[in-house]
């Protein structure tokens, strides 16, 4: 019998593969001593574990070398040296043969002696060796006990990742060739792991609350990211049914590809721009494959994650340049770092906060770390000559924040020009509207910015006071709610009164239930995960803007999201 869990469909599509649990195993064991006659066998077991650990670490090192460069892989060399060090290995084997300790027990005792010696030394370098010993011993112990540690980087066969939660940097390290999908206990539709799954175009279900417990035994898992179902231990009949469903989805995708080169125009001839969101330069391939007309959001903070050093100006310049060149002259909106919240950067010593989403994040952190900010701004300005760059600041709450960020940008531009570096003159500079204060004061902001992009993931979180990462309050994620629609309406009207354009790069922009409303409200640009672009184009081609304006007017005067959703259904079914 299979078990079906229902969570939040976070990234469309169907995937089937065996479960790979990212949950850390319990490495506790009961202390036992061994018979003298068994000691040779125990030593052999220990040596086998050392061998297996070496194979594992070598794999991780090779992967890290390719992914983040040799200097970041050096730590694994240190780990391999520990495994070859007779001063560490010798005493463990002696404890087994001489004191008849079990291999796990001998390992733990010698490990603890080494750690306390190293930790008591003054020298920083020696103190760090304690961390190496801890890491390596944990791996050897996991082999001795037959309870493997999770290591997403070393996955080399098709799997579905099962985890309590995935951090943005965990997600950034997933290798799409092998990771066919993922399922988590925690999270909501707009948590960053869900967003990353959409940009990687791998099916995902989040917020199931109990997948780590239910799928602990491994086995075959089916993920239906379209509806949010997860089937654990699927039967042959279920596998067949889902194979058929997957084929149908594939067929639909092929039909949609016929719209790839089309303009995005409503039935009554109103054109809007359909753009895509990216996290890394590699995502541009998906943007082009799905016929997006630009990039409406490049989340640059992903360049800073999954590594322990900060990206320097030249490295960033190359990343921005490659995106701009690949996109030819199509618009590319690059958002400056939105670090903080759930997006941690190991190279920055970020304070632990009680309310990180209300804390020191995004432009607040950038303005507080001017050198970090300047490095990014200079890289962007240098790259501007390679395409159609627009720069956007995240999490702007006040006009002063925007002005301070813009002044720094101008300062960097003047500096580069004085050094005879080419920089484009007419770069548009805009803001994300994701804090209610900016949405409410949009008329004032519209006088000073070149464009707005509405970030509904955060705007909904802050308007409804509902943590976007928390599955228990995910019912408050209500893109159709009139409270939110009134804010959006205010932003669009205020921008248009000043002849400025408005985009949306939150997940709502690609939500088929919201698209008719947004057309009616007069949104100019829709930016979404690449996989949603063609569906949105097909939908918009079937809509009449004048009808959608009536729909939007009625929605704005409605009391709740249910009423609005019913209205949308009524209007769109008439088509
Ligand atoms: C697009 C947004 O930014 P992020 O999801 O990266 O916070 C948003 O808040 O809607
Ligand atoms: Mg945001």
TrEMBL record:
Residues 259-543 form the PEP-utilising enzyme C-terminal domain. It is found in: Cytoplasm. Its main location: cytoplasm. Residues 156-228 form the PEP-utilising enzyme mobile domain. Keywords: Coiled coil, Cytoplasm, Kinase, Magnesium, Metal-binding, Phosphotransferase system, Sugar transport, Transferase, Transport. The active site is at 192 (tele-phosphohistidine intermediate), 505 (proton donor). Residues 232-266 form a coiled coil. One of its GO terms (cellular component) is cytoplasm. GO terms for biological process: phosphoenolpyruvate-dependent sugar phosphotransferase system. Its EC number is 2.7.3.9. It comes from the Bacteria. The keyword Cytoplasm applies. It catalyses: L-histidyl-[protein] + phosphoenolpyruvate = N(pros)-phospho-L-histidyl-[protein] + pyruvate. GO terms for molecular function: kinase activity; metal ion binding; phosphoenolpyruvate-protein phosphotransferase activity. Mg(2+) binds at residues 434, 458. Its cofactor is Mg(2+). NCBIfam families: PTS_I_fam (TIGR01417). Belongs to the PEP-utilizing enzyme family. This is Phosphoenolpyruvate-protein phosphotransferase.
